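Ticket #4471: structure output looks truncated?

Reporter: J.K.
Steps to reproduce: submitted the chain below (92 residues) through the standard prediction queue, then opened the result file.
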Amino acid sequence: IFKTTEVIETFSLPHQHSLQYYIQLIHLFGAPNSVCSSITESKHIKAVKEPWWCSSWYKALSQMLITNQHLNKLVAAQTDFMNCGMLDGTCL
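Returned output as attached by the reporter:
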């Protein structure tokens, strides 16, 4: 009806199709623009934006994945060192 009455110039069926799942997705993953989305955004920044900024921006995906792998390994090493008592006190 929007096309025939020329209310809107661009019309995207995939966008219209995704609206039917909107309520179900809110129930599954939390309401948009609330605490849930801010948590998601902070995780997105840590997992996507920061590695993107560290990349050369040319074929960045593989660089971003390697950066995330390195960061995960550093966190795992830190956790292991803490559990072994290797990070107690100063290192000097």
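Triage note (M.O.): checked the attachment and the full token line is present. The chain has a mean pLDDT of 79.
Status: closed, working as intended.
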